[in-house]
Design goal:
alpha/beta, nine-stranded mixed beta sheet, three-stranded mixed beta sheet, 23% strand, globular, disordered C terminus
Length: 227
């Protein structure tokens, strides 16, 4: 597929998938979020002692702020991506409640003045994902450039919904497959040439984080901090 044709096709697919996600009812998005939180906690116990980068949610994406808060309670360090220059790799700056935020591209907040970290794990939202473990993002290529530039590659976990699954994104040389994909259904592992579904942890499987779940953001909307 020619590059210009590919760009046009990806743009069309991106718009279609975002529209489908935006059509989800709030209750459904919340149910998916709880399921994904559970899959991540139970399937990746190392998260609670890692440096974890995540993305501020937009357009009905999975909201990882709840999980991030819970990880911090058990010793993890959490960070958000920051655009430092057009065409340059992202940097990751530590974020927790109380760190000042500024508004960036697409209205996405980023931390101001906090320390830069090198993440052990990156939780990546996806507009679409395919059977080869490739991610359809917003078209800027920021994460591909960033991951390719890091001296130590972090574990990459793509987060999305089953409705966003594609047969292929027509990956190119610059597209990097994810290590794992997690949806409301369960966990997929990249095992060349494609993804292998590992399933979901059985009901009753203990979490690596033993304290009970408490989503303070549902009680106080400003809990995670104001922009």
């Amino acid at each position: 597929m020619q590059i210009e044709v590919l760009k046009s096709w990806r743009k069309s697919e991106r718009e279609r998938l975002i529209a489908a996600r935006l059509a989800l009812e709030a209750e459904t998005v919340e149910q998916y979020r709880h399921s994904i939180d559970m899959h991540l906690e139970r399937s990746f116990p190392g998260l609670f002692k890692a440096s974890v980068a995540f993305c501020w949610p937009i357009r009905n994406e999975y909201d990882s702020r709840h999980l991030a808060k819970r990880l911090r309670e058990h010793g993890a360090v959490t960070a958000l991506p920051v655009v430092v220059a057009r065409g340059a790799p992202l940097v990751f700056r530590e974020w927790h409640a109380g760190v000042q935020l500024a508004e960036g591209a697409l209205g996405i907040p980023y931390p101001v003045g906090s320390r830069e970290i090198q993440p052990d794990v990156v939780l990546l939202p996806m507009n679409g994902w395919d059977e080869g473990g490739y991610r359809l993002g917003y078209g800027g290529g920021f994460f591909d450039r960033t991951l390719a530039s890091l001296a130590k590659k972090p574990l990459t976990i793509g987060i999305s919904y089953e409705l966003s699954r594609m047969a292929t994104i027509e990956p190119q040389g610059w597209d990097l497959p994810l290590d794992y994909v997690v949806t409301e259904r369960g966990v997929y592992r990249h095992d060349a040439p494609g993804l292998v579904f590992l399933g979901a942890p059985p009901a009753g499987t203990p979490s690596a984080m033993a304290s009970p779940v408490c989503y303070a953001g549902e009680i106080d909307p400003d809990y995670f901090g104001k922009r």
